[in-house]
Amino acid sequence: MNHQSSIDPSTSTAQSHFRTLRVGTPFQPRIDALARTNDWYNWAGYRAPHSLWDEELEYFAIRSQAALFDISPMTKYRIAGPDAEAFLNRITLRDVSKLKPGRVHYTAWCDDDGFVLDDGTLFRLSPARFRLCSQERHLPWLLDSAIGFDVAVEEETEAVAGVALQGPAAFAVLRNAGFAGVERLRVFDLAEFPHDGDTVTISRTGFTGDLGYELFAPADKALSLWDRLMLAGELRGIRAIGYTALNRARLEAGLIVANADFTTSERAIRADRLRMPDEIGLGFMIDLEKGHFNGRRAIVDARARKRLRHVLVGLEIEGNIPAEHAIVYYRKSQEVGLVSAAMWSPMAKCNIAIASLARPFGDTIVDDLWVEIYAMRELQYQKLMKRAKVVQRPFIKLDRRTANPPADF
């Protein structure tokens, strides 16, 4: 007897969910076709590549050519309505009234105790329409916070495909793709351009510290956008890349990642892992001249009472062995912090890292710091104590990132 014939097809489909452990993005068919390493990770439930073909060469594609990186899994919220500006001013650190239509700014938001919930980018698409992009999901919190405001908040992560085009040839690729007027975009500008019977929003933003753009389009226009960019960039050496290469570029740019360089307050289990904006280098965002915002009272109080216990710093470390997750010591004996990201930088030509240190170390005490590195040498770990010095971020600064008009490489 064939027992399978009695199974309801809908039930069979529901029970086979385990076959797709992670969902694909709108660009997945193109990315899967290019994948050679099969090196995947889970980005917010999506199947995303650590690398596609060679993580070293993918990094150099960012720095010497043009690189395409799928940012569709990034959480995206559409926030619109008469009170959209007032609502966002209430929950984020920066003064949203200073963000003009057609502009983007990097911002963060806190809980009522002044601890960082997340950071992200806020796009002002029109006077009463915004897009908020973040690492973590915050819809319940955003909806609760919107009570009393005439504003609609909707997650649009699945509906909007996003791709980052980064590298010295990024502008040339967009120009060759026919996006007329893209040369007028300055850093943190955005504009809409026609594409495949619809529109694509292009912003001069990115996570690499290089000349770059981010493009957002309806999910059903994703593949035609990808093909348009790849065709236009063929003679410019355009390449698709994974997160490992992007992560190296962002570290050189001195940029931080939520739940990698700091723990968001919703994720933190231990009380001493919580961080205020001033403790992770985001104090510059805080605008005390505007009205009340989430965490304001706690932030002001912590500053006045000198209760800021941590500082996030850039380090330059002797030698060439990356010090990722190394413990930082003062005078080789007192543990004072931890490295969260590290690499040998091909651009800066030195060993760099981002570390969280306990004040006053890294703040007023910046000398006699050491990192403890364990290097595998011929099947045996060797403990290395390497001198570290606090340096300014970014570790590299590329003029082409901000050049107006952008250079044609």
Layout of secondary structure:
Layout: H1 9-15, H2 28-34, E1 39-43, E2 46-51, H3 55-64, E3 66-70, E4 75-80, H4 84-91, E5 103-110, E6 116-126, E7 129-134, H5 139-145, E8 152-155, E9 160-166, H6 170-176, E10 190-195, E11 198-203, E12 212-218, H7 222-232, E13 238-240, H8 243-252, H9 296-304, E14 310-317, E15 327-330, E16 334-345, E17 350-358, E18 369-376, E19 381-391
Parallel strand pairs: 3-13
Antiparallel strand pairs: 1-2, 3-9, 4-7, 4-8, 5-6, 6-7, 9-12, 10-11, 11-12, 14-17, 14-19, 15-16, 15-18, 16-17, 18-19
Helix pairs in contact: 3-8
Structural notes for this entry:
This protein is of the alpha+beta class. It is 19% helix and 32% strand. The strands form 4 sheets. Strands 10-11-12-9-3-13 form a 6-stranded mixed beta sheet, with helices on both faces. A 6-stranded antiparallel barrel has the order 14-17-16-15-18-19. A hairpin with a 5-residue loop joins strand 5 (103-110) and strand 6 (116-126). Helix 3 (55-64) packs across helix 8 (243-252).
Q: What gyration radius follows from the Cα positions, in whole Å?
A: 23 Å
- Mean pLDDT figure: 95
Largest sheet: 6 strands, mixed
Shape descriptor: globular
Following the backbone from N to C, one meets helices and strands in this order, namely HHEEHEEHEEEHEEHEEEHEHHEEEEEE
Helix percent band:
10-25%
